[in-house]
Amino acid sequence: MADLTSSFIGIKSPNPFWLASAPPTDKEYNVVRAFQAGWGGVVWKTLGSEGPPVVNVSGPRYGAVWGADRRLLGLNNIELITDRPLEVNLQEIKSVKRAWKDRALVISLMVPCDEDSWKDILKRIEDTEADGVELNFGCPHGMAERGMGSAVGQVPEYIEMVTRWVKKHSRMPCIVKLTPNISDIRRPAEAAKRGGADAVSLINTINSITSVNLDDFSPEPMIDGKGTHGGYCGPAVKPIALNMVAEIARNAETHGLPISGIGGVTTWRDAAEFMALGAGNVQVCTAAMTYGFKIVQEMISGLSDYMDRKGFTSTADLVGRAVPNVTDWQYLNLNYVTKAQISQADCIQCGRCYAACEDTSHQAIAMSPDRVFTVKDEECVACNLCVNVCPVENCITMVPMQKGVVDPRTGRKVGDYANWTTHPNNPMSVKAAE
Amino acid sequence: MPNSQLTPGIVPGRLPATAYDRNFDDHLPALDAHEARVAADRCYFCHDAPCVTACPTDIDIPLFIRQIATGTPEAAARTIWTQNILGGMCARVCPTETLCEEACVRQTAEGKPVEIGLLQRHATDVAMASNRHPFSRGPATGKSVAVVGAGPAGLACAHRLAMKGHEVTVFERRPKPGGLNEYGIASYKAAGGFAAREVDWLLQIGGITVKCGVELGRDLTLADLQRDFDAVFLGIGLQGVNALRAEGEDLPGVANAVDFIADLRQSSDLSKLPVGRDVVVIGGGMTAVDAAVQSKLLGAETVTIVYRRGPEKMAASGYEQDHALQAGVRIIHNAAPFRVTGNGRVEAVDFAYTEDGPDGLKLLDEGFTLKADQVFKAIGQTLTGVPEGVMVAGGKIAATPARVWAGGDCAAGGEDLTVTAVAEGRDAAEAIHAFLTGA
Q: Which residues form the FAD/NAD(P)-binding domain (chain B) (predicted)?
């Protein structure tokens, strides 16, 4: 069994699976159950300033997007930061950390954007013996209206400023949690790095309305006839998160900055994908909220088996392994030619590939009167849509053409690597490609 | 002493009073809304879908399933009824395992087709519960059409004609409309008086007058109808029953399976319906299975279907045969009856084994005897009561005089299935409409 122990910015945990700052980590009771189930660490639900705690709505605070069998595909929420007194949280954090020394325990923080507020909260958490802090610059609902959460995360200068205060007033490792509700994720990551952050974590939730009630004409979840945008998470957001993690991992300014990957991690495979794109560990929320804490056991066995199969002896062997293969479009090999190939033995003759290609693509699939579907190589541009809509796994595959063979579509021989930067059609083409 | 399964002879009340409702309830419970949505999600929405090709009424199956999946079962029902106005009954009685579901690509892929029949039933049940008939009559044409037989073919024809604005009169020889839906199908396939409910719902379109207890040839002639109506549709079904051609088949205790099924369907108290202790059913079709299974459900101790050829030749599908076996019916293949014996009433049937060769069926010397106090003949129905001027070939109506059309089991073309009858009735209505309007 592979060694899953993880050291993320010096914070040790028996595995790279942490629970993200969210409802599952709001109380000692929940966190103890999570540790009993096997979670490697938690980021405690965001604490605010001392004083009267925030107030949550008493109507529904989650909305959902379901598949046909009510499989939860996406979840959104309008819950605020912890609504329990600061002192209670601090006592519980201390008690948990004492009892579970081998697990990571990081505290998420969100206080108003002035130095005194941050200095004060950092002082208050000092003797909890927590392993680090995570700055919540991500939550897009409620607190953002009060100038916190994503309101900070959307302004790189604020991120840098607050991170600097935190590093100045605390010796704890500092993770900056980023909002995806921004046009270029690299800018806030760079700001966090300039401010002295030890790591970034992403993504926080995405501004969203999950559905509209077509009888009451209100967004869901509906509070007394009204709704507001909430933060979207769960399996549906994973592709967005993967891209943002990769962007930071391959950006020259932020390359090497540790990343805690968040966003729709549901299985060991999701976690492995985040790690391959540069995440040192992952944080999970929706999957635990959907299935309970036990899912971590599948994540542990799955990642371990995968690493064994690959001969990886530590998670470090996996982290960042796919980053060099994330590139810009302009560097893709334009002489890489593939053709769809339909395995007649596996084909169940549903005709979805035909409908997709004939109606919406390149008319490159032929259908015989007895429902045999074949690819017309002279029309196939290798778009992959037939593969994507085929209900049978591996029935349609993309077969690369060998170098020197004539592509019947273009009449040209398959050549060596060449990309857009040197392509004759490119008005900006340069003589020597990268 | 009350009767039991062991009481000799043909007697009622073999089971405790509470057993009947349970035994004759819906044998395939309906899908609820969530189950339907999950089942619908399995449909791949095939291009030029094989299931549609396999459906005699060409229902747009992928479309109606998608309409269920998106939470609009009433729209799904409209899609079904546009092609098949008896879609509710067909959802219950169609041998889907040899039609749409056999063609389903998921049958090819994993041996588990999309549950098209159950989904069709879900949509039509939900829509019928609203009791809003989804079609309305076209502007009156002033033309009138006589429909003979209120079975699936006649009803489908009448409804389509009414939609087109024609005035329709349906003549039915039995006391109730519905044909085989009402009289010829096992109770547990159409529980809760479904056949009658469906007819009432169908007639909501208006413009259709049903006259029951009127028989062609007895109460009126084809010439009368040709005189009084602009067009005539014959959907008279197959009213005769084939004989066993075995010695002793006139003994008391030997009956037609179709009559037994009809009596059972019309019985208001099944505990009063007599059934034998040892029942033998001769035949290999759906009627044989329906009679055998229901005999068992009424409390017969042993029920045996004997069919003269092998299982693959049986008109009852594999699914139906399994259903019979699960109900406790024994099926013997490759044997034919040659003598019914008994002292004043049937006591046993003598069978010879058969060999099905290139020269046809041959009776072998070897055989066996089955104890029987009730024997049902289910070896096929025959066309009778064909009016003068109508040409018969191969046991079916092959040609009709001018302004007369025919469809359903009585007419040539297609299998003898409810769904085929509906298709033929509907298409005849379209042809009649084209004729009457000069289209």
A: 144-425
